[in-house]
Fold this protein.
Amino acid sequence: MLRRSKMPKNTPDDAPARRLVLRRLGRRDRRYLRDHLIGLGPNGRRMRFCGQPSNEVISDYVDAIDWRHAVLIGQFDGAQLVGVAELFPTLPRWARCAELAVSVSRDWRGKGLGAALTEAALTHAQDHRIRRVTLLISPENQAMLAVAEHQGARLLPVADMVVARLRLRAVPNPVLQGIKAIVAMALPPWGRAARAV
Ligand SMILES: CC(C)(COP(=O)(O)OP(=O)(O)OC[C@H]1O[C@@H](n2cnc3c(N)ncnc32)[C@H](O)[C@@H]1OP(=O)(O)O)[C@@H](O)C(=O)NCCC(=O)NCCS
Protein backbone atom coordinates (compact mmCIF):
# COMPACT_ATOMS: atom_id res chain seq x y z
CA MET A 1 0.00 0.00 0.00
CA LEU A 2 1.40 3.41 -0.86
CA ARG A 3 1.87 5.83 1.95
CA ARG A 4 -0.84 8.48 1.89
CA SER A 5 1.09 11.72 2.15
CA LYS A 6 -0.70 14.94 2.86
CA MET A 7 -1.37 17.36 0.04
CA PRO A 8 0.81 20.50 0.06
CA LYS A 9 0.15 22.30 3.33
CA ASN A 10 0.19 25.87 2.12
CA THR A 11 1.21 28.17 -0.70
CA PRO A 12 4.30 30.38 -0.51
CA ASP A 13 3.86 32.83 2.36
CA ASP A 14 3.46 35.89 0.15
CA ALA A 15 1.02 34.23 -2.26
CA PRO A 16 -2.54 35.53 -2.44
CA ALA A 17 -5.26 32.88 -2.85
CA ARG A 18 -4.72 31.51 -6.35
CA ARG A 19 -6.08 28.61 -8.34
CA LEU A 20 -4.16 25.42 -7.57
CA VAL A 21 -4.65 22.58 -10.02
CA LEU A 22 -3.03 19.15 -10.06
CA ARG A 23 -3.30 17.56 -13.49
CA ARG A 24 -1.59 15.45 -16.11
CA LEU A 25 0.49 17.41 -18.60
CA GLY A 26 0.33 16.95 -22.35
CA ARG A 27 2.33 18.03 -25.38
CA ARG A 28 0.64 21.45 -25.27
CA ASP A 29 2.12 22.09 -21.81
CA ARG A 30 5.72 22.01 -23.04
CA ARG A 31 6.29 25.71 -22.46
CA TYR A 32 5.16 25.43 -18.82
CA LEU A 33 7.47 22.48 -18.29
CA ARG A 34 10.38 24.31 -19.97
CA ASP A 35 9.87 27.40 -17.78
CA HIS A 36 9.59 25.27 -14.65
CA LEU A 37 12.76 23.26 -15.30
CA ILE A 38 14.77 26.31 -16.34
CA GLY A 39 13.57 28.08 -13.18
CA LEU A 40 14.86 25.35 -10.84
CA GLY A 41 18.11 27.26 -10.29
CA PRO A 42 21.67 25.88 -10.51
CA ASN A 43 21.42 23.52 -7.55
CA GLY A 44 17.93 22.33 -8.48
CA ARG A 45 19.07 21.64 -12.05
CA ARG A 46 22.07 19.72 -10.78
CA MET A 47 19.84 17.61 -8.53
CA ARG A 48 17.20 17.06 -11.19
CA PHE A 49 19.50 16.29 -14.14
CA CYS A 50 22.63 15.04 -12.33
CA GLY A 51 24.57 17.74 -14.17
CA GLN A 52 24.35 21.40 -15.09
CA PRO A 53 22.36 21.54 -18.35
CA SER A 54 22.08 24.86 -20.18
CA ASN A 55 18.67 26.38 -21.02
CA GLU A 56 19.06 25.02 -24.57
CA VAL A 57 19.74 21.50 -23.33
CA ILE A 58 16.66 21.68 -21.07
CA SER A 59 14.61 22.95 -24.00
CA ASP A 60 15.84 20.04 -26.17
CA TYR A 61 15.04 17.64 -23.33
CA VAL A 62 11.44 18.90 -23.20
CA ASP A 63 11.08 18.67 -26.99
CA ALA A 64 12.34 15.08 -26.94
CA ILE A 65 9.72 13.80 -24.46
CA ASP A 66 7.69 10.95 -25.88
CA TRP A 67 4.22 12.07 -24.76
CA ARG A 68 2.60 8.82 -25.88
CA HIS A 69 4.31 6.93 -23.08
CA ALA A 70 5.57 9.47 -20.55
CA VAL A 71 3.23 10.46 -17.73
CA LEU A 72 3.82 13.91 -16.27
CA ILE A 73 1.72 15.09 -13.36
CA GLY A 74 2.03 18.76 -12.55
CA GLN A 75 0.90 21.17 -9.88
CA PHE A 76 -0.15 24.54 -11.29
CA ASP A 77 -0.41 27.74 -9.33
CA GLY A 78 -2.51 29.78 -11.74
CA ALA A 79 -0.60 29.67 -15.04
CA GLN A 80 2.67 28.64 -13.43
CA LEU A 81 3.80 25.04 -13.18
CA VAL A 82 5.32 24.83 -9.69
CA GLY A 83 6.05 21.13 -9.45
CA VAL A 84 6.09 18.06 -11.65
CA ALA A 85 6.53 14.31 -11.35
CA GLU A 86 7.85 12.76 -14.57
CA LEU A 87 7.27 9.05 -15.01
CA PHE A 88 8.98 7.35 -17.95
CA PRO A 89 8.17 3.69 -18.66
CA THR A 90 11.37 1.91 -19.69
CA LEU A 91 11.92 -0.76 -22.33
CA PRO A 92 11.03 -3.57 -22.68
CA ARG A 93 7.44 -2.63 -21.80
CA TRP A 94 6.55 -6.15 -20.64
CA ALA A 95 9.01 -5.70 -17.75
CA ARG A 96 6.62 -3.05 -16.34
CA CYS A 97 9.34 -0.73 -15.07
CA ALA A 98 9.53 3.05 -15.04
CA GLU A 99 11.87 5.85 -14.04
CA LEU A 100 10.64 8.75 -11.96
CA ALA A 101 11.99 12.27 -11.48
CA VAL A 102 10.38 14.99 -9.38
CA SER A 103 11.02 18.71 -9.22
CA VAL A 104 9.49 21.55 -7.24
CA SER A 105 9.98 25.31 -7.80
CA ARG A 106 12.21 26.99 -5.23
CA ASP A 107 9.39 28.97 -3.54
CA TRP A 108 7.37 25.79 -3.04
CA ARG A 109 9.98 23.48 -1.55
CA GLY A 110 9.60 22.07 1.95
CA LYS A 111 5.79 22.29 1.91
CA GLY A 112 4.96 18.69 1.05
CA LEU A 113 4.55 19.15 -2.70
CA GLY A 114 7.45 16.86 -3.68
CA ALA A 115 6.01 14.07 -1.53
CA ALA A 116 2.48 14.63 -2.91
CA LEU A 117 3.65 14.57 -6.55
CA THR A 118 5.69 11.43 -5.93
CA GLU A 119 2.66 9.76 -4.44
CA ALA A 120 0.44 10.82 -7.35
CA ALA A 121 2.95 9.39 -9.86
CA LEU A 122 3.34 6.12 -7.94
CA THR A 123 -0.43 5.72 -7.64
CA HIS A 124 -0.75 6.25 -11.40
CA ALA A 125 2.05 3.73 -12.01
CA GLN A 126 0.42 1.17 -9.74
CA ASP A 127 -2.98 1.66 -11.39
CA HIS A 128 -1.30 1.10 -14.79
CA ARG A 129 0.31 -2.16 -13.71
CA ILE A 130 3.86 -0.85 -13.41
CA ARG A 131 5.69 -3.03 -10.90
CA ARG A 132 9.04 -1.29 -10.35
CA VAL A 133 9.97 2.36 -10.23
CA THR A 134 13.53 3.70 -10.07
CA LEU A 135 14.82 7.13 -9.11
CA LEU A 136 18.38 8.37 -9.50
CA ILE A 137 19.18 10.63 -6.57
CA SER A 138 22.27 12.58 -5.56
CA PRO A 139 23.47 11.51 -2.07
CA GLU A 140 23.29 15.21 -1.05
CA ASN A 141 19.62 15.38 -1.93
CA GLN A 142 18.20 14.84 1.57
CA ALA A 143 14.67 15.87 0.61
CA MET A 144 14.36 13.41 -2.30
CA LEU A 145 16.01 10.64 -0.30
CA ALA A 146 13.46 11.26 2.47
CA VAL A 147 10.56 11.09 -0.01
CA ALA A 148 11.87 7.84 -1.53
CA GLU A 149 12.49 6.27 1.87
CA HIS A 150 8.99 7.15 3.06
CA GLN A 151 7.61 5.33 0.04
CA GLY A 152 9.57 2.24 1.07
CA ALA A 153 12.35 2.49 -1.52
CA ARG A 154 15.49 0.41 -1.29
CA LEU A 155 18.46 2.76 -1.58
CA LEU A 156 21.55 1.45 -3.37
CA PRO A 157 24.72 3.51 -3.77
CA VAL A 158 25.89 3.25 -7.39
CA ALA A 159 29.03 5.19 -8.37
CA ASP A 160 28.49 8.69 -6.95
CA MET A 161 24.69 8.46 -6.97
CA VAL A 162 21.96 6.64 -5.08
CA VAL A 163 19.53 4.43 -6.96
CA ALA A 164 16.16 4.25 -5.19
CA ARG A 165 14.13 1.17 -6.13
CA LEU A 166 10.44 0.89 -5.39
CA ARG A 167 8.43 -2.28 -5.85
CA LEU A 168 4.71 -1.62 -6.37
CA ARG A 169 2.02 -4.07 -5.39
CA ALA A 170 -0.13 -5.43 -8.20
CA VAL A 171 -3.64 -3.99 -8.21
CA PRO A 172 -6.16 -6.86 -8.57
CA ASN A 173 -7.60 -6.90 -12.07
CA PRO A 174 -11.44 -6.82 -11.63
CA VAL A 175 -12.04 -8.69 -14.92
CA LEU A 176 -9.65 -11.50 -13.94
CA GLN A 177 -11.15 -11.62 -10.44
CA GLY A 178 -14.62 -11.99 -11.97
CA ILE A 179 -13.49 -14.80 -14.30
CA LYS A 180 -11.82 -16.61 -11.38
CA ALA A 181 -15.02 -16.36 -9.31
CA ILE A 182 -17.15 -17.77 -12.18
CA VAL A 183 -14.67 -20.62 -12.76
CA ALA A 184 -14.65 -21.39 -9.02
CA MET A 185 -18.47 -21.55 -8.94
CA ALA A 186 -18.53 -23.79 -12.04
CA LEU A 187 -16.11 -26.32 -10.52
CA PRO A 188 -17.59 -29.51 -8.95
CA PRO A 189 -17.36 -29.58 -5.14
CA TRP A 190 -14.24 -31.82 -5.18
CA GLY A 191 -12.64 -29.40 -7.66
CA ARG A 192 -13.41 -26.48 -5.32
CA ALA A 193 -11.90 -28.38 -2.41
CA ALA A 194 -8.77 -29.07 -4.46
CA ARG A 195 -8.56 -25.37 -5.43
CA ALA A 196 -8.92 -24.35 -1.79
CA VAL A 197 -5.90 -26.45 -0.73
C1 LIG B 1 13.57 17.02 -4.05
C2 LIG B 1 12.31 17.89 -4.12
C3 LIG B 1 11.45 17.41 -5.28
C4 LIG B 1 11.54 17.71 -2.81
O1 LIG B 1 10.35 18.44 -2.89
P1 LIG B 1 9.79 19.26 -1.63
O2 LIG B 1 8.43 19.72 -1.98
O3 LIG B 1 10.77 20.27 -1.24
O4 LIG B 1 9.76 18.10 -0.53
P2 LIG B 1 8.66 17.91 0.60
O5 LIG B 1 8.30 19.22 1.17
O6 LIG B 1 7.56 17.09 0.05
O7 LIG B 1 9.47 17.11 1.70
C5 LIG B 1 9.72 15.77 1.55
C6 LIG B 1 10.57 15.28 2.70
O8 LIG B 1 11.88 15.84 2.60
C7 LIG B 1 12.19 16.55 3.78
N1 LIG B 1 12.91 17.75 3.36
C8 LIG B 1 12.43 18.78 2.65
N2 LIG B 1 13.41 19.67 2.40
C9 LIG B 1 14.52 19.17 3.01
C10 LIG B 1 15.86 19.62 3.12
N3 LIG B 1 16.25 20.75 2.53
N4 LIG B 1 16.74 18.85 3.80
C11 LIG B 1 16.35 17.69 4.37
N5 LIG B 1 15.10 17.19 4.28
C12 LIG B 1 14.20 17.94 3.61
C13 LIG B 1 10.86 16.92 4.39
O9 LIG B 1 10.99 17.12 5.78
C14 LIG B 1 10.04 15.73 4.05
O10 LIG B 1 10.31 14.69 4.94
P3 LIG B 1 9.22 14.31 6.06
O11 LIG B 1 8.09 13.67 5.28
O12 LIG B 1 9.96 13.39 6.93
O13 LIG B 1 8.81 15.60 6.69
C15 LIG B 1 12.65 19.40 -4.29
O14 LIG B 1 13.51 19.77 -3.26
C16 LIG B 1 13.31 19.73 -5.61
O15 LIG B 1 12.64 19.97 -6.60
N6 LIG B 1 14.64 19.73 -5.68
C17 LIG B 1 15.34 20.02 -6.91
C18 LIG B 1 15.15 18.92 -7.97
C19 LIG B 1 15.44 17.55 -7.42
O16 LIG B 1 16.29 17.38 -6.57
N7 LIG B 1 14.75 16.53 -7.94
C20 LIG B 1 14.94 15.16 -7.55
C21 LIG B 1 15.43 14.37 -8.72
S1 LIG B 1 15.01 12.64 -8.54
Remarks:
- Residues 113-127 form the longest helix (15 residues).
- The helical segments are 30-38, 41-49, 55-63, 113-127, 142-150, 174-186, 189-196.
- Residues 40, 44, 47-48, 101-104, 109-115, 135, 137, 141-144, 146-147, 150 surround coenzyme A (CB under 6 Å).
- The CA atoms of residues 41 and 106 lie 8 Å apart.
